[in-house]
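On clarity, I found the account of how folds are encoded harder to follow than it need be. What matters is that the chain and its backbone geometry are given together, residue for residue. The format is easy to grasp once an entry is in front of the reader. For illustration, here is how one protein appears when written out as sequence plus structure tokens.
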Amino acid sequence: MSVNSEANDSELVARVLQGDKNAFRPIVERYQNRIYAMVVGMVRDEAEARDLVQNAFIKAYQGLDTFRVDSSFYTWLYRIAMNLAIDSCRKRRRRKTGSFDEAIAARDEDGEMLVLHHADGPAEALHRKELRQRIFAAMEELTEEQREVLLLREVEGLSYAEISESMGIPEGTVMSRLFYARKKMQALLKDTPEAPMQGAKKAPSA
């Protein structure tokens, strides 16, 4: 049977476990960009992010027999990749801000995309590059937990319920971490024009 890229994750996992190694390729193609966007946001280094994403897929492939078919494969894969990213951050607590994927954009509190790059002149392009660097440098000051929830909300665009499932924490904790992450980012970027997350909301109860 040929591998159908539109097959659902559970079907593809079942094929791999039955010996069809090629069935894992559609899974990689389906999720590699999303996983990379999250990992590069955590480690802020493109080369390291690529290595971590590759390791995450290898680890997932080797551990497919532990995946519960009644659960979300993306959530399971995301958790593997994020654990690797967090471990890397803790080993290299302080690092110089490097280059970043220009395809990453942030979302404001209403869910609207705040595109951080587009076709414009050299001066505007330089300004936007500096803005991206300041944003990611500011994210360095967040805890891993705050950074993760901020990325899931602002980059991935997940709902509170989806973030709760992905991180394995209550929705109240999600809301609280997101509030304090946004508040800290706002303080760090208060002198930066066009910075995302314009204003923090009232702290939610956990």
Remarks:
- The longest helix spans residues 24-43.
- Residues 44 and 98 are 6 Å apart (CA to CA).
